[in-house]
Design brief:
Blueprint: E1 4-9, H1 14-24, E2 29-35, H2 44-47, H3 64-70, E3 73-76, H4 83-92, E4 96-99, H5 109-115, H6 117-122, H7 128-133, E5 135-136, H8 139-147, E6 151-153, H9 157-171, E7 181-186, H10 201-204, E8 209-210, H11 217-230, E9 237-242, E10 249-256, H12 264-274, E11 281-283, E12 301-308, E13 313-320, H13 324-338
Parallel strand pairs: 1-2, 1-3, 3-4, 4-6, 5-6, 7-9, 11-12
Antiparallel strand pairs: 7-10, 8-9, 10-13, 12-13
Helix pairs in contact: 1-13, 3-4, 8-13, 9-11
The structure holds NADP nicotinamide-adenine-dinucleotide phosphate (NAP).
């Protein structure tokens, strides 16, 4: 088999399925190992007949030695807490890892234990040095460090959309560091493939509902990265909502402009300059607002800026596909960099509309 060998652990879940779909179109990667728990022992062609692999595989329990024998790189798409049970051994065996969960998103293990307390009670961890080593995989902002990394913590879906909107303004010191508000909406696939009552059709369709109001886990992740960009500690307000759609995520970010004379045109110019070398981020003209449908099944983030001169508020709207740019696509971007390829290799940027 030609190509760089990749293992996908959690293959049967939404993140695993997107990763496999993206890798099918990839010119350099070949999938050589599939890992899972309940799906373990099942032949892929029977388990997921709608997404055949060029070489059929049997899903296996994710034993690090077996993964290392089959693959050079691994994408871990597992519930929180499980990547940390695998990654240390994989790295020891020379397998580079992209983790799509939150296990390595915080610089300190103590913070992970605090935010992911329920998981921390179930899975003992002592890999604090790996938390410090892992590179936060927001590719547009961390490409240099990712090229030489061996462990990547792919950002959460809400942090991805929010940070891509916010970081250029924070880094330039253009908005107040207090009073930032992020109002975000996501589709039901954001909750994963495992059965959950609030994601049943009868519960989620024809309804919009907030959840995790005050203290959603992604708040601290956004704050960590926003604080790093601003060079000071930032606390912000983040409220997610569940929308009656399968995929897509829209974050609307509000911040007070320090210079009330700045216009939407000025802010659009700034955003375009910040992302001029990043084909994954496109900034729309002033007055055109992004729809989740415009980024469906793509690895693109669409941004748009408006300024309310009456209130002095900057408003940045950010749309992504939660399963692609918000999860698997961003993971493959990082995988590309770990493998010495261009970040965008093999990744779709244009939607099939509608
Ligand atoms: N969904 C999103 O929009 C999104 C976005 C960004 C990040 N994330 C993060 O990405 C990760 C995966 O999310 P998801 O939505 O893809 O979850 P999911 O659909 O629930 O899939 C989870 C996968 O993990 C496997 N798994 C569970 N327990 C396992 C174990 N003990 N050993 C081996 N495999 C096990 C399952 O395999 P079996 O079926 O074989 O048990 C399944 O394939 C999560 O940490 C999530 O927070 C999700």
């Amino acid at each position: 088999m030609a190509g760089k060998r990749v293992a996908v652990i959690g293959a049967s879940g939404y993140g695993g399925l997107q990763t496999l779909r993206l890798l099918q179109d990839h010119p350099e990667f070949v999938v050589t190992f599939l890992g899972g728990e309940r799906s373990s022992g099942k032949r892929w062609s029977e388990l997921v007949p709608f997404l055949p692999l060029p070489h059929d595989l049997v899903v296996q329990s994710p034993d690090p030695a077996a993964i290392a024998a089959a693959a050079d790189l691994a994408v871990l798409s597992l519930p929180n807490g499980l990547a940390a049970q695998l990654a240390p051994a994989l790295l020891e065996l020379g397998v580079k890892v992209v983790d799509l969960s939150a296990d390595y998103r915080y610089r300190s293990l103590e913070q992970w234990r605090e935010v992911y307390a329920a998981e921390a009670r179930q899975v003992p961890r002592s890999d604090g040095e790996l938390c410090a080593e892992a590179v936060y995989g927001l590719v547009e902002w961390e490409a240099e460090r990712l090229r030489s990394a061996r462990l990547v913590a792919a950002p959460g879906c809400f942090p991805t959309a929010s940070l891509l909107a916010l970081l250029p303004f924070l880094q330039q010191g253009l908005i107040d560091t207090s009073g930032i508000v992020i109002d975000a909406k996501t589709g039901a696939s954001g909750g994963g493939r495992a059965a959950k009552e609030h994601l049943l059709l009868a519960e989620a369709s024809e309804a919009v509902a907030p959840y995790g109001v005050v203290g959603h886990r992604h708040t601290s992740e956004i704050e960590q990265q926003a604080s790093q960009a601003a060079g000071q500690v930032i606390q912000l307000q983040f409220t997610p909502h569940l929308m009656p759609m399968v995929r897509g995520l829209l974050a609307t970010v509000y911040g007070r402009l320090r210079d009330p004379g700045l216009t939407a045109d000025d802010c659009t110019t700034l955003l375009r300059a910040a992302y001029r070398h990043q084909p994954t981020v496109r900034v729309l003209p002033v007055g055109t607002y992004p729809s989740t449908k415009w980024v469906r099944q793509t690895n693109c983030c669409l941004l748009s800026v408006q300024v309310d001169r009456r209130t002095g508020q900057l408003i940045v709207m950010s749309a992504i596909d939660n399963l692609v740019k918000g999860q698997a696509g961003q993971g493959v971007q990082a995988l590309n960099l770990l493998a010495g390829l261009e970040a965008g290799t093999g990744l779709p940027l244009l939607p099939f509309y509608p």
